[in-house]
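Reviewers asked in the last cycle whether our approach scales beyond single polypeptides. To address this, we selected a multi-component target totalling 646 residues and predicted its structure end to end. The input consisted of the following lines:
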Amino acid sequence: MRLSYPSNVKVIKVPCTGRVDILLILHAFEKGVDGVYLAGCMEGECHFLRGNLRAKQRVQYVKGLLEEVGLGGDRVEMFNMSASQGQRFAQVAQEMTERVRSLGPSPVRGGLRDDSR
Amino acid sequence: MKTNSKIEKIWESGGFIVTSECGPPRGADGDVVRRKGEFLRGVVDGVNVTDNQTSVVRMSSLSACVILKGMGLEPILQMVCRDRNRIALQSDILGAAALGINNVLCLSGDHQKFGDHPQGKNVYDIDSVQLIQTVCRMRDEGKFLGGDEIKGKPVIFIGAAENPFADPFEIRAARLGKKVKAGCQFIQTQCIYNLEKFSRWMEMVCDRGLHEKCAILAGVTPMKSVGMARYMKNNVPGMDVPDDMIERMKGTPKEKQAEEGIKICVESIEKLKEIPGVRGIHIMAIEWEEKVAEIVKAAGLLPRPEV
Amino acid sequence: MIVGNRKEFKEIVEMLGSNRRVLLLGCNECVTVCGVGGEKEVGVLASELRIHWKTAGETFEVREHTLERQCDYEYIDQVRSFVGDYDVILSMACGAGVQYVAEAYRTKLVMPAVNTTFLGVTLEQGVWSERCQGCGACILDMTGGVCPIARCAKSLMNGPCGGSSEGKCEVDREVDCGWQLIIDRLTELGQLDRYEDIMPVKDWRSSREAGPRKRIREDLKL
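The resulting structure, written as structure tokens, was:
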């Protein structure tokens, strides 16, 4: 479609968002990534039946873990769209980028925690 | 074995029994007990003293019983299985008998989660049915639960509670049957608002002949307000408050609600007196002990017999 | 299986204190089945610790290792060659495993990452429920296969109490009344007449009440 989306979004293709494991997301944050989002099929239309529903639950769980370690649950998100929705893909990329930008860089990437807080 | 219990004497003579309750204070002031006791003097045949009811720490039941006994009233020692093991329970029975307490009510006890110390452990070494059996054995066989002989048997009239409104309804009469089999001689029921259901329970109880072996005292509690009625309906486990009762309280102007509550209570007592197998009333006017005299009088139950 | 809950992350961090070289030991049995201390959970906790310490700019080392189980010495011994490289062994096994690891490595700090709770079963994936209290005197043949000690909040032998309402316990409306379950089962089995019998007082000597217990089979000893 040749729609543009922010260049800082790195796309990793998986056969189904159901393939995305909790550890996969956590390891990305360990390496200093500022945000992660999953783009899966519309609910009820998963090509593998329930993969996107499992992904949704896992994203919820990871949100909790990110709160626990002080990164904040908003850095991870689940979005749904159909394969033909190029517009939505670009829109979501934009939305998530803006969100993560306002959250600031991940404190993990070489950052020192402010102990006076 | 015959005891010195006033309740037993009235039961034996075929009379109608009236008991009430006294909740000990959350402090060491014995006068609180004396004041409550005064309200009940000459008005009832026996006074229950609750045992850390709802798992909230209060002055011990045994000590408050002793205070009431000293005033010439007939206390009923409530004992729950939640806080004491078989050693302590048997020990307290001996102590109660030694102090002239003639009646004991054996209960499981509300779980500690309801009270002010939910962090505590509970005991539940034995249950209420086994406690009845234990007291019976101590009195009639002169033996401790462990088998050793008791020198100086405790002579005490044994009671328990039963809740006709708890589930499953179908076994509630069977459960009473177990208690009677264990040696229970009188029971007080949970407070009754649903008379229809209570009648059905009484039918099952009479079918088993339990009303002849055990004095069944129907429990009543006067409502102070529609708020209290709603609270009891929604927040108290094992309580059955019919909607029309709530409606009746709701339809009464606020300043008249307490009076209406008393009226409903008296009406209930009148109806309960007529139900076959009911041998008495247990009035639980929680923190409203001053109204018991009025209720007993209005229900035509005065004067109480001298035994 | 034995079921537990992982401690709160804050609590684990506080427990570790200034110790930064951690051997995170998982267990492949009970805690794996109930999703609290198996290889996957070890991975998650390790990742969380790394994120936490990286954020703080600390140097650290977290090694992940999952043993077959931590209640048999042969397995615990498998880490002996590298245990010395770490300040703390943070075990995700049940309380029995944590203690046994501590017994095997007496000069090492051994800490629990899991709060061990009960003996239970899997109701469905993700949901586990308590079934047994280890009283040592099983009466399940008499109660239709439902345990009054474990499943009644008051461990009544002659229940239910007056707080049973619509099949639920007064303690928690989500918890089944153990005695309702017993009565239902006895009814299904045509054994409701058993309900009329008074269950005698329990002899607690076979339970933990009498002190820590041991089981010995002489014929199995080498």
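DSSP finds three helices and two strands in chain A. We regard this as preliminary and will revisit it once experimental data from Aim 1 are available.
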